[in-house]
Specification:
heterodimer, A: mainly alpha, B: Arc Repressor Mutant, subunit A, globular
Chain lengths: 174, 214
């Protein structure tokens, strides 16, 4: 084996991926060839640039969430596409999604409150407006007879003009 | 293909014990797949729990954005679920899932335009690299600093080189497993890795000449 044949085999040898049939002649070559041994050392140096990282942390409840989405018919890529098309809107959507039960409760509460306000407004309106088919401007609930009305006006006049003015007026009455 | 849950103890097990364990894991996976297809949500959740670590780890080598990572992993599992009826059991479930993961991650990042990954280059038409020599990271460098430099270099590599380097150097995958995931021959894995490492060294020296070796 010469250096040209040995060089491409060195990484696989260091990876432990060479069969003994290929590894044995390479081993013999490395024992005799200092430049190839230096090359092998370079490959070992390269491996130090790939440090093994600590076990990655997984978001809590990830598997359950994914399984739920899968069985709800989500085929994937939806979030990717949404985020590509609306990169700014996505975080808000995610927040709504993660707080879905609270969001739905607040939504239902708001709808119920709106219904109550509308019902109250309608009932107040029908209570204050005059009703009936006539054109009277009087309040039905406070309805009085014509005689009573005249009597009230008279008493008001009496109060305004005093007792002396009231007497002649009374004398005119039959 | 391994079960995706390697432990340091596995190195001292005999090959027969390893093979039996792998067969057992594969049988369990296939059973979970059947139960999932029959409508059992808990079985699919178990499959996700089994392999989420490996898919998260893979995605984190392509983007450091935590939200992107979670989206990509989620999409990988959702895609796998939607195609579960096409899983034939010819390869292990993990190989099948990992393949979907690699494709989903590359497609997702390309679509977002956030990744510097480039169009696939054919390693066979690239010139044979010269014998570039680099030193290892200096002893006082923190692991995070080394990882930051390495990922910056990987970002500059064509995606086929980046992918084999991630699978081999970070994920410790055997050539056979890489070949199954990428659906290429072991010889192609070997030559692609050889060129990927040479490219990595070139780019590292371009960005950090101080790590060159006489």
């Amino acid at each position: 084996m010469d250096c040209r044949q040995a060089e491409p085999l060195i990484p696989s040898y260091l990876d432990g991926e060479l069969s003994e049939v290929r590894a044995a002649p390479l081993r013999r070559h490395l024992l005799d060839c200092q430049p190839c041994r230096a090359g092998a050392q370079g490959e070992k140096n390269l491996k130090r640039w790939f440090p093994h990282e600590a076990a990655s942390s997984i978001p809590k409840g990830f598997a359950a969430r994914v399984a739920r989405r899968a069985f709800a018919g989500d085929a994937g890529e939806s979030t990717l596409v949404e985020r590509v098309l609306q990169p700014q809107a996505a975080p808000a959507m995610r927040a709504v999604e993660s707080e879905e039960p609270i969001f739905q409760f607040v939504l239902a509460l708001t709808a119920a409150a709106a219904l109550v306000v509308i019902a109250l407004a309608v009932s107040m309106r029908s209570w204050t407006l005059p009703s009936g088919t006539g054109l009277r401007a009087t309040d039905n609930r406070g309805q009085i007879s014509v005689e009573d009305a005249i009597e009230r006006l008279d008493s008001l006049n009496r109060a305004e003009t005093g007792g002396e003015h009231a007497r002649p007026a009374e004398s005119r009455r039959p | 293909m391994d079960d995706g849950n390697r432990t340091p103890q596995e190195g001292v097990r005999g090959p027969r014990v390893e093979a039996t364990l792998m067969e057992s894991v594969q049988a369990e996976d296939e059973s979970l797949v059947r139960e999932t297809l029959a409508g059992n949500q808990a079985s699919f959740q178990l499959l996700v729990e089994r392999y989420q670590d490996r898919i998260f780890s893979l995605a984190r080598h392509y983007t450091r954005n935590a939200v992107d990572v979670e989206d990509l992993v989620q999409d990988t599992f959702l895609k796998a679920f939607s195609r579960l009826d096409t899983f034939q059991g010819q390869s292990s479930f993990f190989t099948w899932l990992y393949r979907i993961g690699v494709n989903t991650i590359l497609d997702g990042l390309k679509r977002r335009g956030r990744s510097p990954v480039r169009a696939v280059e054919d390693p066979e038409i690239l010139a044979t690299p010269g014998p570039t020599r680099i030193s290892g990271p200096s002893a006082d460098m923190e692991r995070e600093e080394i990882a930051r430099i390495t990922h910056a270099v990987l970002d500059e590599l064509p995606e086929i080189f980046r992918t084999v380097l991630v699978m081999r150097e970070f994920e410790d995958m055997a050539y056979q497993d890489i070949a199954e995931v990428l659906q290429i021959s072991i010889g192609t894995v070997e030559s692609r890795l050889f060129r990927a490492r040479a490219k990595f060294k070139d780019k590292l020296l371009q960005l950090h000449p101080e790590f060159g070796q006489e």
